C-alpha cells in the first residue's frame, strides 16, 4: 500500500496553525528568510525551474518556464494567486486557506521575491467566506509582524497582499477570465497571446499561480531541489533525440470523492496508479469500479480497463485524459453514465460565459441532447441502413443485415466536436472551456456507448453491468495511442 | 439604460462602517473600476440585494457607467437583483454531491419549506411566503469529500441527511 507523504498538509491539523506564533514554531517563514538571506532572486527562479514543478491548477505548465517569460524590465509586475477553486471534484485549496493560510503567504512572499513583485491579489472564490476570513486575518498578522508591507524585515522589499472575492462564476478560474474579473469586468477570458506573463492585469506582466503551486515553493527553497526531485517520476520525452527529461516531481494533493469509503484529500507522490489511490482512500464503496474521472469534471473519463494508469501529468496526457486539478471522482457499478454526463453538462451549460458562439449555443445543445436521451426520447434513425461488410461470398458488400443508427449519438459527437475537437485538440473558442465541455461529452459517449444506445433503444435509463457498459480498449480508438511512459532513469 | 428608465425607490448610500471599508478597498487597486466585485459584495450585504439605486451609487463611486455595473451584476450568480430571504440556502447539485444523494436533501428541503427552487431570473419562486428562506441550486461548492453539502448564507453544512436538515432548520427558525 502506498504511504501518504504529507508536506503541504503536514501541519494542517495542528491546532491554531492559522496563527502566526504556532506557524512560526513549525518552521514558518524560515524558508522565506533563507531565500532572502542565501539566494538572489534569479537563483530562486532557477531552483523552481530545476525542481520541475508543474502548475497544479489544471494545465500542468512548468512554473519555472512560465516565470522565465515574464519581462524583468517592466514594472510593476503583479502576482495573481488563483484561489477560485470551482472545478467539480476539487477541494484541496479550501483546506489550505481555512487551516494553514500562512503557508500560502510564505509561498507568495518567495514568489514575489523571485520575480520582483510588489503587489499580489489572491482571487478567492466568493463562496469561500471562511477561507477568506482566515486568510485576511493571517495577512493582517503578517503585516503586524513585518513580513508584509513596506521594507519587509529590513530587506528593502515592499510586498502587499490583497484578497479579492469572486462572485460565483466558474470561468473566473481560467487565468485570463480571472484577470478580467479582477479588473472589475465580466469574467470573460481574453485571447492569447498576449499571455498574462507579458500583458496581464492592468496591462502589466502578471504571474498567475494556483494556491497549491505557491505552497510548494517554501519546501523547494527550504529542502533544496535535489530533495524535491526525488519525489515522483521523471519520464523520458522520447519525441526529442536524445530524450529529454519530463519531470512529474513533487507531491500532489489528490482530492478523491464519489464512491469511496473515505473521501478526502490525500497528499501523495505523483505517479501512483488509479487503483492504488482508491485503496488509499479506504477502498471502493460498492462492488466494482465502473468509471473514474481523473482530474475534475472536465477530464475525459477512465474505464475499469484503465485503472493501472498512473495519476501524473504525463501518463494521463498519454492516456488521452488529464490530471487537471487532481479531483478524482469514482463511480461504482450502480451509476448510470448517461445520468452522470447529464449532471456535468448541466454544469457546463450553466457556467459557459457566453462570449464565443460555439460554446454559448453548443453547450446547452449538448445538454439538451443528453437530457433527451436520459428522458427516454433519444432520437434513433427510423430507417435502418444496410450494413456493409464482408459478405458470405467473401467480398465486400451489402451483408443483408441492417443496422440501427443512433442519430442523437452522432449529433452529440458532432456538436461537441464543433465546440472543440477532441481528436485534433483544436478549439473554436477563446479559452479551453470549450475542450472542457467536449472532452467529457465525447469520452463518456465513446467509452460507454452501450449504455447510451440502451437508453435510446429502451426509452429509459438503463444501467448495464460494468463489463457490458464499457467499450473494450481495442475497439475504442480513444485508447489507441496509449502506452506506458518510460522513466528517464531507465533509459 | 438611462437615469429616466430606472425607477429609484430608495436612494442608497454606504453606512459609515461600509464607507470606511470601501475607502480602504479603493486604495488596493491602480484603477477604481477594479474594486467592482468587493464593492458590490459590500453593497449587497447592506442592501440585501442589488437594486437599481445600488447600481447607480456604485457606478458613481467607481466612476464608471451604470451599464458597466449592470453588466457585471448580471454576469455573476452571487449578486441578486431581486429580494431574497433572510437565509439563502444554496444546495450543491454537481456530480460528487449527486453521487451522495443530494437530491434527497433538495427534495426534503423543498417539501419542508414548501417552496420551489429559485432560478436565476426568478428568485421569488424559491422564496418562502414569510420571506425567511430562499432555496436555490448551485454548482460545486468545493467540499466534495463531505458531500452532500449546503451553504446557508456564509456557513457550510456537511454530510447532510434529512435529519440533519431538520436540526439546522429548527436552529435557524428559533
Describe it.
The complex is a heterodimer of chains A (491) and B (174). With 491 residues, chain A is α/β, with parallel strands linked by helices. Chain A has 3 domains: 20-230, NADH-ubiquinone oxidoreductase 51kDa subunit (Rossmann fold); 250-334, Ubiquitin-like (UB roll), CATH 3.10.20.600; 337-462, de novo design (two linked rop proteins) (Up-down Bundle). Helices cover 38% and strands 15% of the residues of chain A. Chain A is built from 18 helices and 15 strands. Chain A has helices at residues 20-25, 30-38, 41-51, 63-68, 92-99, 101-115, 129-144, 175-182, 211-223, 225-229, 274-280, 313-318, 337-351, 357-375, 407-419, 433-447, 449-458, 466-469, and strands spanning 78-83, 119-124, 160-165, 206-210, 234-237, 244-247, 251-258, 264-269, 289-293, 302-303, 327-332, 385-390, 396-403, 420-421, 426-427. Chain A has a 5-stranded mixed beta sheet, with helices on one face. Chain A has a 4-stranded parallel beta sheet with strand order 3-2-1-4, sandwiched between helices. A two-stranded antiparallel sheet of chain A has the order 5-6. In chain A, strand 5 (234-237) and strand 6 form a beta hairpin. Chain B is α+β, with helices and mostly antiparallel strands. Chain B has helices at residues 16-26, 36-47, 52-62, 66-75, 95-99, 102-113, 162-173; strands at residues 87-92, 133-138, 150-152, 155-157. A 4-stranded mixed beta sheet of chain B has the order 2-1-3-4, with helices on one face. In chain B, helix 1 runs antiparallel to helix 2 and helix 2 (36-47) runs antiparallel to helix 3. Chain B is elongated and about 50 Å long. The interface between A and B is large, with 53 and 43 residues.
Give a short summary of the structure.
The complex is a heterodimer of chains A (491) and B (174). Chain A is of the alpha/beta class.
Amino acid at each position: 500500500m502506498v504511504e501518504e507523504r504529507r508536506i503541504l498538509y503536514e501541519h494542517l491539523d495542528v491546532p491554531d496553525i492559522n496563527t502566526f506564533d504556532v506557524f512560526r514554531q513549525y518552521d514558518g517563514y524560515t524558508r522565506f528568510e533563507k531565500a532572502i538571506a542565501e539566494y538572489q532572486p534569479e537563483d530562486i527562479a532557477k531552483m523552481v525551474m530545476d525542481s520541475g514543478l508543474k502548475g497544479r491548477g489544471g494545465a500542468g505548465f512548468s512554473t519555472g518556464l512560465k516565470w522565465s517569460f515574464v519581462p524583468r524590465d517592466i514594472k510593476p509586475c503583479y502576482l495573481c494567486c488563483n484561489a477560485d477553486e470551482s472545478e467539480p471534484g476539487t477541494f484541496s485549496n479550501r483546506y489550505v486557506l481555512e487551516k494553514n493560510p500562512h503557508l500560502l503567504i510564505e509561498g507568495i512572499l518567495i514568489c514575489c521575491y523571485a520575480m520582483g513583485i510588489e503587489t499580489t491579489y489572491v482571487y478567492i472564490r466568493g463562496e469561500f467566506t471562511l477561507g477568506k476570513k482566515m486568510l485576511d486575518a493571517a495577512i493582517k498578522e503578517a503585516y503586524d509582524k513585518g513580513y508584509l508591507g513596506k521594507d519587509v524585515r529590513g530587506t528593502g522589499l515592499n510586498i502587499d497582499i490583497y484578497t479579492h472575492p469572486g462572485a460565483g462564476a466558474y470561468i473566473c478560474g481560467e487565468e485570463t477570465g480571472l484577470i478580467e474579473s479582477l479588473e472589475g469586468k465580466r469574467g470573460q477570458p481574453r485571447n492569447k497571446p498576449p499571455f498574462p506573463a507579458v500583458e496581464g492585469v492592468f496591462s502589466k506582466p502578471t504571474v498567475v499561480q494556483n494556491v497549491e503551486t505557491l505552497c510548494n515553493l517554501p519546501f523547494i527553497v527550504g529542502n533544496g531541489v535535489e530533495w524535491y526531485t526525488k519525489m515522483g517520476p521523471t519520464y523520458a520525452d522520447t519525441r526529442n533525440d536524445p530524450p529529454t527529461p519530463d519531470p512529474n516531481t513533487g507531491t500532489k494533493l489528490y482530492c478523491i470523492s464519489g464512491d469511496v469509503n473515505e473521501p478526502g484529500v490525500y497528499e501523495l507522490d505523483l505517479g501512483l496508479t488509479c487503483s492504488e489511490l482508491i485503496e488509499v482512500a479506504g477502498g471502493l464503496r460498492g462492488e466494482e469500479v465502473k468509471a473514474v474521472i481523473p482530474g475534475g469534471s472536465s477530464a475525459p473519463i477512465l474505464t475499469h480497463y484503465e485503472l493501472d494508469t498512473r495519476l501524473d501529468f504525463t501518463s494521463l496526457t498519454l492516456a488521452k485524459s488529464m490530471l487537471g486539478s487532481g479531483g478524482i471522482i469514482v463511480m461504482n457499478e450502480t451509476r448510470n453514465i448517461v445520468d452522470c454526463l447529464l449532471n456535468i453538462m448541466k454544469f457546463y451549460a450553466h457556467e459557459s460565459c457566453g462570449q464565443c458562439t460555439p460554446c454559448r449555443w453548443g453547450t446547452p445543445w449538448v445538454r439538451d441532447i443528453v437530457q433527451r436521451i436520459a428522458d427516454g426520447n433519444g432520437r434513433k434513425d427510423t430507417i435502418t441502413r444496410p450494413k456493409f461488410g464482408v459478405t458470405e461470398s467473401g467480398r465486400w458488400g451489402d451483408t443483408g443485415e441492417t443496422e440501427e443508427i443512433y442519430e442523437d449519438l452522432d449529433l452529440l459527437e458532432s456538436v461537441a466536436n464543433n465546440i472543440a475537437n477532441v481528436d485534433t485538440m483544436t478549439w473554436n473558442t477563446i479559452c479551453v472551456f470549450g475542450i472542457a465541455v467536449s472532452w467529457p461529452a465525447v469520452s463518456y459517449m465513446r467509452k460507454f456507448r452501450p449504455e447510451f444506445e440502451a437508453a435510446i433503444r429502451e426509452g429509459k435509463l438503463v444501467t448495464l453491468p460494468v463489463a457490458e457498459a464499457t467499450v473494450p480498449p481495442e475497439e475504442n480508438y480513444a485508447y489507441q495511442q496509449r502506452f506506458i511512459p518510460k522513466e528517464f532513469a531507465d533509459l | 439604460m438611462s437615469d429616466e428608465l430606472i425607477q429609484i425607490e430608495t436612494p442608497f448610500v454606504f453606512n459609515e462602517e461600509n464607507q470606511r471599508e470601501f475607502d480602504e478597498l479603493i486604495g488596493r487597486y491602480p484603477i477604481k473600476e477594479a474594486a467592482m466585485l468587493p464593492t458590490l459584495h459590500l453593497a449587497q450585504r447592506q442592501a440585501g440585494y442589488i437594486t437599481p439605486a445600488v447600481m447607480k451609487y456604485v457606478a458613481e463611486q467607481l466612476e464608471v457607467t451604470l451599464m458597466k455595473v449592470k453588466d457585471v451584476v448580471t454576469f455573476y450568480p452571487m449578486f441578486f437583483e431581486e429580494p431574497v430571504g433572510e437565509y439563502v440556502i444554496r444546495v450543491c447539485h454537481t456530480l460528487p454531491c449527486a453521487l451522495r444523494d443530494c437530491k434527497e436533501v433538495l427534495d426534503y428541503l423543498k417539501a419542508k419549506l414548501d417552496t420551489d427552487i429559485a432560478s436565476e431570473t426568478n428568485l421569488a419562486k424559491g422564496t418562502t411566503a414569510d420571506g425567511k428562506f430562499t432555496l436555490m441550486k448551485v454548482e460545486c461548492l468545493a467540499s466534495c469529500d463531505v458531500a452532500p453539502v449546503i451553504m446557508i448564507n456564509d456557513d457550510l453544512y456537511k454530510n447532510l441527511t434529512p435529519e440533519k436538515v431538520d436540526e439546522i432548520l429548527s436552529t435557524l427558525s428559533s
